[in-house]
Amino acid sequence: MSEFSQQRLESRIAEIISTLIVTGQIKNHNLSTFTSVTEVRLAEDNANATVFVSSLLSDGSLDKSVNALNSAAPFIQSRIAKNLRTKNTPHLVFKADKSYREAERINGIIDTLMKDIDE
User: Fold this and answer.
1) Which of 103, 101, 99, 90 is CA-nearest to residue 17?
2) Where are any strands of DSSP class E within the chain?
3) What structural domains does the chain harbor?
4) Which of 36, 53, 101, 119 is at 20 to 30 A from 25, Cα to Cα?
5) Closest to 53 (Cα-Cα) out of 38, 31, 68
6) Do 97 and 54 form a contact (C-beta atoms < 8 A)?
7) pTM of the model
8) For residue range 74-96, what is the model confidence (pLDDT) as tens digits?
9) CA nearest 42: which of 76, 6, 77?
């Protein structure tokens, strides 16, 4: 599969999962609607996909949402299969993406250093 086709498929998978989360089609009380898909990494053979999700809520809420998504993975895979109509649907694994929080922490450190330099 070409790199462009794989990127398009990753994008489409992220879109479908995001829609399922926002519309509340995934019935799990631990899944926050503030959870968003940040990246999908599809294996070269399209057999597996790692889906990174983030949330503006606490890390505990993000971890609960990741667990809820992993438990709902078969349902999500079936919805992806219906929407994509590809020969094979990738096996999904959800992981927390905490890069946003890390970036905020680093920006805070830089801001503090810049204030110290200005003084």
Assistant:
1) 90
2) 35-42, 48-55, 91-96
3) 3-118 (3.30.300.20)
4) 101
5) 38
6) yes
7) 0.81
8) 999 999 999 987 788 899 999 99
9) 6
pLDDT digits (tens, 9 = 90+) for 45-85: 889 999 999 988 777 888 999 999 999 999 999 999 999 87
Q: Match 């889906």 to its residue by tokens.
A: 51
Contact indicator for 64, 28 with CB cutoff of 8 Å: no
Site of tokens 């003084």: 119
**Cα distances (angstroms) measured from residue 10 to each of 7, 21, 42, 74:** 5, 17, 6, 18
Sequence-distant (6+) residues with CB within 8 A of 93 are 48, 49, 50, 51, 70, 73
